[in-house]
Design brief:
With about 250 residues, the protein is an alpha/beta fold. The chain is about 45% helix and about 15% strand. The chain has 11 helices and 8 strands. The protein has an 8-stranded parallel β-barrel with strand order 1-2-3-4-5-6-7-8, surrounded by 6 helices. Strand 2, helix 2 and strand 3 form a beta-alpha-beta unit. Helix 8 packs across helix 9. The longest helix has 18 residues. It is globular, with a radius of gyration of 17 Å. The protein binds 2-phosphoglycolic acid. 2-phosphoglycolic acid binds next to strand 8.
């Protein structure tokens, strides 16, 4: 069974509602014949607009984070149920910017992933090493820890509902892409860990692993040609309809 490619845009803190209308309207016809799963992950304030505009199209909508509690005294947070009610299907969890600037840990990533799954959302779980960790030969150690932490207590029946995004921190927003070989061999480490945690068949058939970090229309083809890479999580290049569509239609 081949793993279906999945290309997701991560808009980060970009686009007002008016900008969302323009971008999504332009994007719809450009990606309508895609053979991949196409997802756009937007700020909370744009979600309702994005869901409304993409109804009946092949574009799915995701959020960029979710809280683990069902509800309660968590000022500023958004629950999985709130996202589901809006018609959101995916949610990015544990992005390196959240880990770096907002105190996200492997344990909170795990809690968020479980809450998302329980509500019927599909988590896109981000993992990746810093430059210091790569230069210190700690890539396997770091990824093994992040993956084991994120998947703690998650049932193997859920694996087809989860996407992993391998995003080397040194490649995000820097214009510095991992070479296809580095991305592929590092994703193989993640898949191996999933094999250890679950089973060889699970890792091979059920787990989709994206590459993220300066993926763009120019480098997408060679990255997607690698056997381990099942898609991309696209930041900068997802903010322009033509660029994102060229990535989707690689
Ligand atoms: P980038 O961002 O494509 O701008 O490097 C990727 C990401 O952070 O998901």
């Amino acid at each position: 069974m081949a793993r279906k490619p999945i290309i997701a845009g991560n808009w980060k803190m970009n686009n007002t509602i008016a900008e969302t209308k323009a971008l999504v309207t332009d994007l719809i016809p450009l990606v309508k014949d895609s053979a991949c799963d196409v997802v756009i992950c937007t700020p909370y304030t744009d979600l309702a607009t994005a869901v409304e505009l993409t109804k009946g199209t092949n574009i799915k909508v995701g959020a960029e984070n979710v809280h683990w509690a069902e509800k309660g005294a968590f000022t500023g947070e958004i629950s999985a149920k709130m996202l589901v009610e809006l018609g959101v299907e995916y949610v990015i969890i544990g992005h390196s910017e959240r880990r770096q600037y907002f105190g996200e840990t492997d344990a909170t990533v795990n809690q968020r992933a479980k809450a998302a799954l329980a509500a019927g959302l599909k988590p896109i779980i981000c993992v990746g090493e810093t430059l210091e960790e790569r230069e210190g030969n700690k890539v396997k150690e770091v990824l093994d820890r992040q993956v084991a932490g994120a998947f703690e207590g998650i049932d193997k029946e859920e694996l087809t509902n989860i996407v992993i995004a391998y995003e080397p921190v040194w490649a995000i927003g820097t214009g510095k892409t991992a070479t296809p070989e580095i991305a592929d061999e590092t994703i193989a480490i993640i898949r191996k860990k999933m094999e250890e945690l679950y089973c060889p068949k699970c890792a091979e058939e059920k787990v989709r692993i994206q590459y993220g970090g300066s993926m763009n229309p120019k480098n997408v083809k060679e990255l997607m040609a690698m056997p381990q890479i099942d898609g991309g999580l696209i930041g900068g290049a997802s903010l322009k309809a033509v660029d994102f569509s060229q990535v989707v239609n690689y």
